[in-house]
Amino acid sequence: MAESSIKQEQSKNAGNENFPVGRVVRKELRPLVAAYYAAARAADDIADSPFLSPQEKNDRLELARQTFLKQDNEAGFSEAAVLGRLFRQERLDASLYLDLLEAFRRDALNAPLQIWAQLTDYCTYSAVPVGRFMLAIHDESPSTYLPAAALCTVLQIVNHLQDMKSDAVNLRRSYLPDDLLEKYGVYRRDVCLDKETPGLTALKLDICGRCRGLLKDALVLPALIKDRRLRAETGIIFSLTNSMLKKIEESDVLRRHVKLSRRDWLRAFGHGLRTMWLPRRKFRTK
User: What is the full DSSP assignment across 141-187?
Assistant: First the structure.
């Protein structure tokens, strides 16, 4: 497909996202962050396209990979081409983008997840590279990578819980592992109902509890980040994540789409400012 056709299929943008990744970084880094986001979004839109077969999706994601690596200069995937040039210029690890393509390839296949570990492994490709990218462009210590991975995994799973119904209805996709479905007596079709079944509610709360455990593993992250703006962004994301988890725990996500309020955002930005100047502040997960 030509580049113009690919763009016509795109339906998501930064304004649809829950979390402000890269919005408060230093000015000189913003073009690189924007290019990374654009290349990721273009590939994500391919994986989510309702008009393409799994094989067509895989072929186009391979095109993105080749263009990014400059193996095919005439591919026409401009977002990946721009990002590839910037990565080579900044000497960034190519896996920070290629891992995302692997996650999108898995989305294109729509293979069910059998156990919880497969979900967290998926997050290792779909979300963790974004955190590593942000840390890498700020020259942060590798000691930040593990707590950042925990935080990014939670962000991804929160999005899955928030969108479980729309993913099932529109994409025929589910990120709920079979082992948890069996544990709580939930069928995959239950996420398409008008309200949560008792089993689905219990499953949802189980996953939220696991996410809160991961957040505890991430608490040390702000204290390890040197860059003040990135530290502030991390504080904002912690606050928004806690707000979203609480909303998901207390709401029926099948009845209405859970989203952050203006008050949540204002509280989060205040928290981010405090985090900027209090790097060793302890964060609460409830």
Answer: -GGGHHHHHHHHHHHHHHHHHHTHHHHHHHH----S-HHHHHHTT--
Other Cβ atoms less than 10 A from the Cβ of 220: the count is 16
Are the beta carbons of 128 and 153 closer than 8 angstroms? yes
pLDDT digit string (tens) for 212-235?
A: 999 999 999 999 999 999 999 999
Summarize pLDDT for 46-93 with one digit per residue, the tens.
Answer: 999 999 999 999 999 999 999 999 876 656 689 999 999 999 999 999
Residue 215 corresponds to which tokens in the numbers above? 């957040």
Residue-wise DSSP of 233-246:
HHHHHHHHHHHHHH
| Residue with tokens 């955190």, as numbered in its chain | 131
* 181 vs 197: CA distance, rounded Å: 12
pTM (predicted TM-score): 0.88
Please report, as a single letter, which amino acid is at residue 90: E
Cβ-contact 238, 271 below 8 angstroms = yes
HSE-CB of 88 using CA atoms within 13 angstroms = 9
Rounded Cα distance, 65 and 80, in Å: 8
Residue identified by tokens 């996500």 is: 253
